[in-house]
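Issue: copy button drops trailing tokens. Both records pasted manually instead:
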Amino acid sequence: RPRSHTVTTTSSSFTANLSASSSTLAYDREFLRTVPGLLMVTEIVLGLLVWTLIAGTEYFLYPAFGWVMFVAVFYWVLTVFFLIIYMTLTYTRIPQVPWTMVGLCFNGSAFVLYLIAAIVDASSVTKDLDNHNYNSWAASSFFAFVVTSCYAGNTYFSFISWRSRTLQ
């Protein structure tokens, strides 16, 4: 007696959506033309300058400059990470994360810790400490304060963004 062979196939909408969403990578060119985008690029460029000016010296002999290096490198890496997230519109693909709150916490903590690091940097720079590295440390101190003001600006814009989302 012959058997009947029935084959049923189903298609998952999850795999269809996954393949459609991963095939194109979004890129937001306009982000770099906004004030927060320009501040972020400035933070990256000048933050790199802060830690390279210190890294070119014997900073490891002085714990204060080690702290400044930690803050500068840590927030430089995170700022590059967030720039990539904003430029590729990754935040739109992960709506479960409260991105406005994350941005506010990130920029607020960067402002506070960079301000402390800039003050420590400026107070540690003396010609008596090491005349050979004086200019590098003095320049890093100046740029640390500039980066601090950039993070203060981004904290303000993050607060405005968070506040507008909270009121809705």
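Record 2 (pasted manually too):
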Amino acid sequence: VDRFLSLLLSISSGLSPAEVNAMKFLCRDIIKKGKRETVQVGLELFSILMEQQVIAPDRLGFLKELLRHISRGDLLALVEQFEQGELQAPEDQPDEREKPFDVIRANVGRDWKKLMRELGLPEVKLDKVEAAYRYDLEEMVFQALREWQKWKGKDAKVADLIKALQGCNLRLVADWVEE
């Protein structure tokens, strides 16, 4: 998988519909109105910007500017990590089939810390995530899962997530993940 496309996917999955709309507004001078109105998610916007050669793996200034304007320092940090070559290569990540983060993100809620402790994530990492995403519970869950994934590397398995969810009495979420 192309690292740049993986970066854009990560950014897109972290954007709310309101943030996508704000980014579309900021692109009004670059993308024609008709095309802009069809954009629903970040990936669609990024595809258009890549077609128009506004963003590319070696041309990230405009993307960084967009993220600054919508106050998403967390996503901006991903771009900066990419620039420094620090984003992990796809082979360092668990298989794509083993990323049930969206199910967990949408359904774990306030029990996220309990789940992360069950997975063995160090308390210092939990505090870091909580401080960075204090006002966005779903993003806290997502970023905590990513921290766990980085921490475990290739040993981050769906089976471990399911077991931890069951251990936290989140059996319904565990069943959804299993599906």
